[in-house]
Write the structure tokens for this entry.
Amino acid sequence: MTIDQVIHTIISWDTLLSKGMKKYIHYYSMRNFAIHYPEIPDQEALKHISDLLTLYVEEVIANNYNFNSKSGYYLGEKYLNKLSPYYRSMLSFSSRLQFKYVLLLGIPADGLLYITGISSHWHFPAVTIALFLYYLFITFLKEPKGYVYGFFY
């Protein structure tokens, strides 16, 4: 399978697969990787990325797009985690952050800062605000351009 066929195959899954199937194969992440593949400047990296994307497509098709949370996590570990460093360093891709994690991580972290006395004079939710600003940056600047990736995205 050539890289052009791989890219076409990944993009064609948009109309072929259900929302649930897309989630477990990390469709939007892989679609972004496929779309921005030609922008990678390093020829050696292009070869490695091409090999990983080809193996990814072959594995998804071999499993008949049938993945659940456990097998989807394995698929992400096997391919997404190997592809993302290339795109992060060469094209400034960013990891996607869901809003629920802004709250689930930010509020306890700010509470811990308050309890430990680090912000004892007056409580300022610095961690929550920082995560929220990151969330806004990704949502409004990176995501519309397709420069994001993430597990189950």
In short: The chain has two domains: 3-91, 99-140.
